[in-house]
Design brief:
single chain; 163 residues; mainly alpha; two-stranded antiparallel sheet; 4 helices; 50% helix; 2% strand
Length: 163
């Protein structure tokens, strides 16, 4: 008959930590832990994949918007280049009645004039466009007109002379 010896002191306390009967540890908590870790990992991957997809859609939208804005900028630059071309400027200037200038004169730093200026020559068929000052000087008002309320000069009038 084999009997286990009784332990005392420190050995007895350590022996109580170990199970007395040979058995298996419960598997349910371990299996539950593994299932929870796997489920959490899958849910984390799903959230990460969704965030990456959302970022990809935003990137596509921003790239499309950038392309549209670049196309619009290029179209506007082409319009500016077309309006700035010398032929287009000359055509619009002639429509306004402008003519090429004559020979210029230059001022030297000491104040002397270099060159002989000549006036611009109007071409036949070009419309005559006058400045507003030239229009009022060319057509004086009749002498018999009186100023109306709209053209009369404003004079301050006292509203309360007693105060």
């Amino acid at each position: 008959m084999s009997r286990k010896p009784e332990l005392r002191g420190r050995a007895a306390r350590l022996a109580r930590l170990f199970p007395t009967a040979p058995g298996r540890a419960a598997r349910a908590p371990f299996v539950l832990l593994v299932v929870l870790l796997l489920g959490g990992g899958l849910i984390g991957l799903l959230v990460l994949n969704s965030a990456l997809s959302e970022g990809s859609f935003k990137l596509d939208d921003l790239q499309r918007e950038t392309k549209n804005l670049t196309d619009e900028e290029q179209a506007l630059q082409r319009d500016i280049d077309a309006y700035s071309a010398p032929d287009a400027l000359q055509h619009r200037a002639r429509e306004l009645g402008m003519v090429p200038g004559g020979d210029p004169a230059f001022l030297n730093p000491d104040g002397t004039v270099r060159g002989v200026p000549s006036p611009a020559r109007a071409t036949a068929g070009a419309p005559l466009v006058l400045a507003p000052e030239a229009l009022t000087a060319a057509a004086p008002l009749p002498a018999a007109t009186t100023p109306t309320a709209a053209t009369a000069p404003l004079t301050p009038t006292p509203t309360n002379p007693g105060r």
